[in-house]
Amino acid sequence: MPQLDRSLIRSFSLFENLGDDQLDAVLAAASTRRMLQGQTVFEQGQVADEFFVLLHGRLRVSRVTPEGQQTMVRVVNPGDLFGIAKALQRPDYPGTAIAAVESLLLVWPMSAWEEMVEHNPAMAVNAMQTVGQRLQEAHTRIIEMSTEDVERRVAHAVLRLVQQSGRKVDGGIAIDFPITRQDVAEMTATTLHTVSRIFSGWEDEGLVEGGRQKLTVLDPHRLMLRAEGRDKG
Question: What is the spatial distance between Cα 200 and Cα 206, in angstroms, rounded to a whole number?
């Protein structure tokens, strides 16, 4: 495995409370894997024989519902632990992870999971907090889909992308990986036509600026008000 920047890895919440010897032992069990844009890390239903931490890049995780509808579940950002099916008491991956941009992963065999958390209680706590946060986010999205109109759902989805993957640029905050209107439609259980109509309206109002696989939020505060239903345009 190539020499890794220990200070970068220690900045990830999963590893922040590990001692030097503990961190070295955890990393010794890992390998690195580079994924080109568009490559699949794992597929929904595949036997989960590895788990991962993203070092660099971005991944999209999607799943197909029993009704055959594809939904974009979340974006994996640098430092995120993912693919931990064993922690969820299941033998397979619940979704499909694809590199949104060229990405670098840390990879462990799933068989190493129990020993790692047994010898590193702080890491186990951090991992369970990660699982809890994702369950909370999933719960929030379910509430949004059942109680909010589609424009508010889309606004909340875009604001989550800004929080997780935003990069300050002149005039606003750009989503720091290729994002399409279809992606946003899948995140909000609506149609491409509806998202396109909403984005076109927002562009006319100066809330966002779009492009081919690009999205920049020009007025985050007003978009937040729109998500809360306090700005009707």
Answer: 10
